[in-house]
Design goal:
The chain has 241 residues and is of the alpha+beta class. The protein is built from six helices and twelve strands. Helices cover 24% and strands 24% of the residues. Strand 8 and strand 9 form a beta hairpin. Helix 1 packs across helix 4.
């Protein structure tokens, strides 16, 4: 974990010219460096630069990753593999919590999609006028997040925003919209946001894990009965009937 955070920091500290070849505003580009710095309709600035790339199947995608820093592919590749193994263990446990076989979610997600983001939030002179990222839930099955030692992540709970303080050598695990659908609302997708600060830059590294295009996401049969009818339309978007 420390090596991954270190190489992420090294990437964003490289000279701009060493990163410029990756810059793109085309959201269809699987590997790209971009920024969310803009003025939204409510005049709140989004204050984050980010690198994103696919992580699975690793052997097919790693050749498209950044060539600099020199150790990036080696460190990030090992990290991506370990995080995927962790996610598969979590999905097995969640499957059993749904009253299904341990490989249930592994199967229904089809050709799994794994995407890593490295978010870099610079220190901000006016944090009251900015957000690193706005309020949202993840349109994933599950998200595993590593954050640096600078606070910034907040979750919405009981009508207010609550800080999720960084813990050394620990991940934050968010259940996403897809698992909310599969569980028929028993598990809730977490609404969260990122805030900025004046003193220090912050890095967060979320790994988004979700279904492939071949998957059909719907409430599990074990979650639906006469007392608990299906509350989501299929295929799985978080839209109540």
């Amino acid at each position: 974990m420390k090596r991954m955070m270190g190489i992420a920091k090294e990437f964003f500290e490289m000279p701009v010219e060493d990163r410029a070849c990756l810059y793109s505003e085309d959201t269809k580009q699987p590997v790209r460096l971009s920024t969310s710095f803009n003025i939204s309709e409510d005049k709140v600035l989004k204050w984050v630069d980010y690198l994103t790339h696919p992580c699975h199947p690793l052997e097919e995608v790693i050749g498209s990753w950044p060539e600099k820093p020199a150790a990036y592919r080696d460190i990030a590749g090992k990290y991506a593999s370990e995080v995927r193994a962790l996610i598969l263990r979590l999905l097995a446990a969640i499957s059993e919590a749904l009253g299904q076989d341990s490989d249930y979610l592994n199967k229904i997600l089809g050709n799994h999609t794994q995407v890593m983001y490295i978010n870099y939030y610079p220190s901000c002179p006016n944090p009251d006028l900015t957000l690193g990222s706005g309020n949202h839930s993840d349109a994933t099955a599950i998200t595993v997040l590593m954050q640096s030692d600078v606070s910034g992540l907040q979750v919405f709970r009981n009508g207010k925003w609550v800080a999720v303080e960084p813990i050394e050598n620990a991940f934050v695990v968010n259940l996403g919209d897809q698992l909310q659908v599969v569980s028929n609302g028993r598990f809730r997708s977490v609404e969260h946001r990122a805030v900025t600060n004046m003193q220090s830059a912050r890095i967060s590294i979320p790994t988004f894990y979700l279904s492939g295009d071949d998957a059909f996401i719907a409430p599990a049969t074990s979650m639906v009965d006469e007392q608990h009818p299906a509350v989501y339309r299929a295929p799985g978007c978080v839209q109540r009937i």
